[in-house]
Amino acid sequence: MDRLSTLLAQFGMHASTVFAAPMPAELVVAASERTARLHLVRHGDVMFQLGQQKVVRITEASLLLLPRPAAHQLTAVAGSQAELVSATLSFDGGLDNPLTLALPDYLLMPLRDIPMLHSNLDWLFAEAFATHCGKNAVLNRLFELTMIQLLRHMMASNTLATGMMAGLADLRLAKAVTLMHDQPARAWTVAELAAAACMSRATFAARFHQVVGITPAEYLASWRVSLTQKLLREGRTIALIADEVGYESPSALARTFRRKTGNSPREWLQLQGESTIAEA
Are 37 and 88 in contact (CB under 8 A)? Predict the structure, then answer.
């Protein structure tokens, strides 16, 4: 069972390195940039502030992930000689994909607490502060690998208490979640998912709701709508998408889509900046 492959295949990430140097006195990122950010503080003394929230001090090598667009700033403490490597992250399926929505507003972790990243980060930092040909191309791939390893770490360490990532971290529930990810068109019953998790129906339903935060049926509907959003962005029609994600008709999918998003598929896509959508 591979808990991440389908998720990353559907909602993959793409990194673009934007900074690799000694930190300026202040680095300000506006929410209008509309990208996620991954910052790696190599060393130094840095102050981090998200919006108007309380300032957090970073005094050791650390990873800082902001999975959704957010106004924030990093300020180097005078004389600390801080070094920073940063990348923007874009995701297949847009900003409201299941992966980014499953993460908190920000994650701040000392690198010493993420040992599985050490080898990759040693390479990343060495590349960032060298002058090799193809430097940015290599850094972009290393940032993407860092994100995959970070997700692995989060599942292995049960970093999140609830939501999709918590469900994937629970080895029994993960079997059911992965089945829904892999086969969204199947009309899964709670009994079938419970059997896959080697649990009774009642125990599974209660455990799933406790850990993931919603019922298995609502999770499957949300996953299907997320896939629909991605396919709409790619220019697919509702008629074709409906069968692919497990609905008997385009109207049935449209009803669930409106219930989950508050908009019809056409309205939702227009709000994303797209001009037209074919619905037949």
Answer: yes
